[in-house]
Amino acid sequence: MAIYRDLSFSERRDAANTAKQALLEKYKSKPSADDPAVQARLAERRAILEAREKREAEKAQLKAERLAREAAEKAKREAEAESARAKAEQEAAELARIREQEEEERLTVQLGLEAAQKAKRDARYAARKARGRRAPPGR
């Protein structure tokens, strides 16, 4: 088991100075902005960004084309549905007109039949009246 020992003030100060010196050396060893390696990395990053922007523009264009195509297809489907609905309404109106005509014809025939039956009944009644009143049986 290791024995923990407190560092003295001078040891802590020396360790901090050593760490600062190491950071300073690391910073100084960084290449400058006009270094060819740095320029190459920047050019590579620009190329990557330009390629990304180009891909995004192509993707946006494809999306716009797809949306336009879908909108045209939707408009076409809606126009077809509207024409089908109008045709169905026209057929329903025609069927209703035909049913109404048939109902009128049926009522006309029925009224004619009822008028003929009433005429027969009235004729029988008039004939009975014309024959005169007979005495009921047993009188």
Automatic annotation (TrEMBL):
It holds the Pfam family DUF6481. Residues 126-139 have a biased composition (Basic residues). Residues 69-90, 118-139 are annotated as: Disordered. This is Uncharacterized protein. It comes from the Bacteria.
